[in-house]
């Protein structure tokens, strides 16, 4: 037996959070449906969490009444604030689109479901909350702790008067979350939850970020609240209001928490991999294992160019020496390694029956399968995907058709392009490298087969690329920074993480989307910016006319073979793929 904080997912039915507060020991969660829609189409729920863990809804949230008093605007930002004496306020910022964006701010106080528009906010926490310079705020009894937009901390009394107070060393990466009568909680740069006392710098680590959901891939902490008995609620989301990918976790102290025994595991890669780091964190959380992750080469950027410190050849020589001696790492990330040679040398374990590959497509698992066994599995991959409306998808059955349409387009990057008024181009490329990377994976497997060049397939591919560059791609040119739908001469071509919407300036979409096999799943939704509405998209793999599709592994894992030949057995392997 041991003691510690127990993590529990406790999300209400609707979980797009716009306000999370604790009054006494009661949690209040304000959530919004259709957060991307015009104000009149949004629905707000005011939930309270009962002692038995059930959610109950308070119908008197006053949001609908407040909306009736707000000027019609296509875009609006909405937040709720609940004071410690049960006074509810709504802040609505209505944004008018146009040549010059303008906004109007509204503050409503709610009583018995009726919203009253206030000319000025009352002194104290509401006035501080409404201040444009306030980024984060925590109420700690009679003291209000604030971080401004520059992440500088300060403090006020309950009437909003500045007070002198010492703060811990946030080092530019700390972020304020919530408070109680004794102090305030904040995240440090490693996503560890810290607690500091009011009026002092004493701090303790409450939650180790590596062992809780605080480091979930693609998620970030958006808000938090804490009860009088130090039960902590933390809201996390992916930052995309249309994806519905948000979670509320409860952390309560448990004196009888069972200790987990997970053993030891070593993981090695040539280069540092965020995918591997996330998988290691997840394994530690789920099993309690002692996992050591090391990489051989440091990567950095100098004047826009990738620079590697250290020798790849030396790192591979050292790894092979360890593997042949049976002292290498348990799990090997095989990116940029001679996988076929390692299989032939017998240093990789046969993973048949040791990892679950039921979720892998046959062409993914088959790449590293030989007559003697399976020697590597992809832990993350990039499928080439289409996304868009019926009209768009049905006119582009294959990659060749897309290339022909691009070749016949006018110069899509010529002159000024107004995403609000001009006809939307079929597709626009950031540069010629992006153009090549989009189409080459579909053909490279047929261009090179068994070490032989298929000249006809190669010629067809080169001719197709040439037609695109002579047509729609004739004005391709390098641009600094990322493409943006708002930058005139460039165009937003989506490149999103798992679970994100893909978006562009009109009713067409094309995406090379990253898909993780780590159990997160994928949620594809199409969003049309011009109309402000969202509909389900058709999403399908991009294929050639011959039916060839492509899934590019971006992280491949294998295990050390402890026997004298492939399949010799005995290897310990962490299932990074499932």
Structural summary, described in words:
This protein is α+β, with helices and mostly antiparallel strands and about 575 residues long. About 15% of the residues lie in helices and about 35% in strands. It is built from 10 helices and 36 strands. Strands 21, 22, 23, 24, 27, 31, 32, 35 and 36 form a 9-stranded mixed β-sheet that branches. A 4-stranded antiparallel β-sheet has the order 1-20-19-18, with no helix packed on it. Strands 2-3-4-5 form a 4-stranded antiparallel β-sheet, with no helix packed on it. Helix 8 (about 400-410) runs parallel beside helix 10 (about 455-470) and helix 9 (about 430-445) runs antiparallel to helix 10 (about 455-470). The protein is globular, with a radius of gyration of 27 Å.
């Amino acid at each position: 037996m041991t003691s510690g904080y127990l993590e529990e997912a406790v999300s209400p039915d609707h979980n797009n959070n716009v306000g999370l507060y604790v009054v006494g020991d009661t949690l209040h969660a304000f959530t919004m449906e259709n957060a991307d829609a015009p104000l009149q189409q949004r629905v707000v729920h005011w939930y309270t969490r009962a002692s038995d863990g059930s959610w109950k809804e308070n119908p008197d949230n006053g949001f609908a009444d407040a909306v009736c008093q707000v000027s019609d605007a296509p875009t609006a930002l909405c937040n709720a604030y609940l004071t410690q004496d049960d006074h509810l306020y709504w802040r609505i910022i209505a944004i008018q689109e146009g040549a010059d964006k303008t906004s109007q701010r509204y503050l409503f106080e709610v009583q018995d479901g009726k919203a009253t528009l206030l000319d000025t906010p009352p002194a104290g926490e509401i006035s501080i909350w409404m201040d444009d310079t306030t980024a984060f705020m925590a109420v700690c009894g009679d003291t209000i702790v604030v971080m401004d937009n520059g992440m500088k901390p300060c403090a006020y009394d309950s009437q909003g008067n500045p007070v002198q107070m010492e703060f811990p060393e946030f080092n530019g990466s700390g972020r304020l979350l919530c408070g109680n009568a004794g102090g305030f909680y904040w995240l440090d740069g490693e996503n560890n939850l810290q607690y500091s006392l009011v009026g002092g710098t004493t701090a303790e680590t409450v939650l180790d970020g590596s062992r809780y959901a605080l480091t979930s891939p693609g998620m970030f902490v958006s808000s938090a609240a804490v009860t009088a008995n130090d039960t902590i609620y933390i809201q996390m989301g992916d930052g995309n209001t249309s994806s519905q990918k948000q979670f509320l976790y409860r952390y309560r102290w448990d004196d009888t928490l069972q200790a987990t025994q997970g053993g030891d595991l070593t993981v090695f890669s040539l280069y540092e991999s965020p995918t591997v780091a996330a998988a290691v964190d997840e394994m530690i959380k789920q099993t309690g294992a002692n996992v050591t992750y090391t990489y051989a080469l440091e990567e950095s950027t100098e004047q826009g160019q990738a620079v590697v410190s250290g020798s790849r050849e030396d790192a591979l020589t050292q790894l092979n020496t360890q593997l042949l001696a049976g002292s290498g790492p348990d799990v090997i990330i095989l990116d940029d390694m001679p996988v076929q040679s390692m299989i032939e040398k017998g240093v990789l374990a046969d993973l048949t029956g040791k990892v679950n590959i039921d979720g892998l497509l046959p062409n993914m698992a088959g790449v590293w399968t030989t007559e003697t066994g399976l020697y590597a599995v992809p832990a993350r991959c990039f499928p080439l995907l289409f996304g868009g409306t019926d009209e768009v998808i049905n006119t582009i059955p294959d990659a060749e058709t897309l290339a022909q349409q691009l070749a016949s387009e006018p110069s899509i990057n010529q002159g000024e392009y107004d995403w609000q008024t001009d006809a939307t181009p079929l597709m626009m490329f950031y540069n010629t490298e992006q153009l090549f990377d989009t189409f080459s994976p579909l053909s490279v497997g047929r261009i090179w087969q068994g070490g032989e060049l298929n000249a006809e397939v190669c010629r067809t591919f080169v001719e197709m690329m040439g037609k695109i560059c002579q047509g729609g791609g004739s004005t391709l040119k390098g641009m600094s920074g990322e493409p943006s739908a708002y930058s005139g001469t460039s165009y937003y071509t989506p490149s999103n993480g798992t679970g994100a919407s893909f978006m562009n300036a009109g009713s067409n979409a094309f995406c090379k989307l990253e898909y993780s096999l780590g159990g997160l799943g994928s949620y594809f939704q199409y969003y049309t910016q011009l109309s402000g509405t969202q509909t389900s998209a058709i999403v399908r793999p991009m294929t050639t006319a011959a039916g060839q599709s492509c899934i590019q592994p971006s992280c491949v894992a294998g295990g050390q073979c402890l026997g004298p030949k492939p399949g010799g057995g005995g290897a310990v392997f962490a299932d990074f793929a499932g």
